[in-house]
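TICKET: design request
STATUS: open
ATTACHED STRUCTURE:
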């Protein structure tokens, strides 16, 4: 059976500058021609993030089936040649140092999507597990720069009020690169219907996340992911649904910065594992789910065109529009 072409809006690899991205072959084997990988969160020191970008760019250049996304044409090239186009995303605005010009720099280094707060609030925006102060003046300046640089404005990990502020303020489509409906799993990292509708009304796409704690299934099964996708299709239409798997490659490699306060960034009161347990009580759906899910979509009556739209075409077309 032919693989459905996949656009994965967010997946993680260890944040280690010498990590070998050749492991991403596994995504190609499951149909992916594009992937956005995280290069840092709000708690990663800027010096580390810069070295991670340098290391990842080198690893991509040395792997013949990976293509660094410098322009939209690189994605088309990956799709035609059976390769994987790779760009970066930044999880939280702290590493922007409150400077809109830093967005220009990250864009030149390969970052194509940014959200402003990672779980906790900062000077730009409110996080989803913190007191949500909304989008600040400094945050608005960053949104302007993200739009001006033609990057995806993302509201993953963002607080409710801030997310609504961003969607009201941004003059470009806003995406949720990895997030699920709160109606199916009531968790602070998930999204209420009015947020999902506002995202679609902005012209954006909501990308289903394969992390067990955000799905209605501790095993993060293909059926629970299809259930989440189908809920979104009923609510906002098939053209606004995608996937941001949030799979974590090589989870056994420790990439946390020195002295990281795990309980502050992933609060136990929101169901995250205690620091001593690591992330062992979380299951990350692997890329093979893309293969498993197709027959489940078919049995729910989805056409091949609709499945292709959700797996990749919707995000591809949005990128074509936003990235220019
Ligand atoms: Zn994330």
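STATUS: resolved
RESOLUTION: sequence designed for all positions
ATTACHED SEQUENCE:
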């Amino acid at each position: 059976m032919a693989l459905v072409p996949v656009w994965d809006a967010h997946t993680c690899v260890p944040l280690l500058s010498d990590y070998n991205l050749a492991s991403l072959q596994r995504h190609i084997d499951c149909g992916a021609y594009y992937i956005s990988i995280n290069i840092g969160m709000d708690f990663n020191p800027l010096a580390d993030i810069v070295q991670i970008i340098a290391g990842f760019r080198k690893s991509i250049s040395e792997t013949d089936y990976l293509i660094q996304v410098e322009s939209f044409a690189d994605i088309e090239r990956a799709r035609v040649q059976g390769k994987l186009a790779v760009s970066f995303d930044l999880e939280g605005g702290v590493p922007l140092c409150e400077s809109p010009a830093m967005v220009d720099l990250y864009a030149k280094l390969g970052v194509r999507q940014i959200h402003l707060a990672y779980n906790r609030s900062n000077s730009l925006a409110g996080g989803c597990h913190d007191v949500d102060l909304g989008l600040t003046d400094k945050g608005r300046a960053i949104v302007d720069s993200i739009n001006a640089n033609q990057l995806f404005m993302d509201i993953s990990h963002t607080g409710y009020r801030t997310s609504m502020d961003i969607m009201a303020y941004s003059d470009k489509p806003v995406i949720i690169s990895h997030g699920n409906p709160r109606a199916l799993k009531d968790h602070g990292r998930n999204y209420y219907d009015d947020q999902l509708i506002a995202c679609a009304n902005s012209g954006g796409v909501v990308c289903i996340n394969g992390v067990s704690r955000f799905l209605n299934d501790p095993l993060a099964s293909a059926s629970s992911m299809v259930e989440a996708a189908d809920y979104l299709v009923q609510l906002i239409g098939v053209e606004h649904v995608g996937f941001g798997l949030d799979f974590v490659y090589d989870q056994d490699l420790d990439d946390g910065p020195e002295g990281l306060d795990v309980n502050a960034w992933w609060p136990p009161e929101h169901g995250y594992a205690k620091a001593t347990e690591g992330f062992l009580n979380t299951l990350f759906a692997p890329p093979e789910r893309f293969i498993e899910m197709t027959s489940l979509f078919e049995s729910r009556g989805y056409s091949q065109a609709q499945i292709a739209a959700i797996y990749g075409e919707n995000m591809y077309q949005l990128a074509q529009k936003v990235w220019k």
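CLOSING REMARK: The chain has eleven helices and nine strands. The domain at 6-322 is CATH 3.20.20.140 (TIM Barrel).
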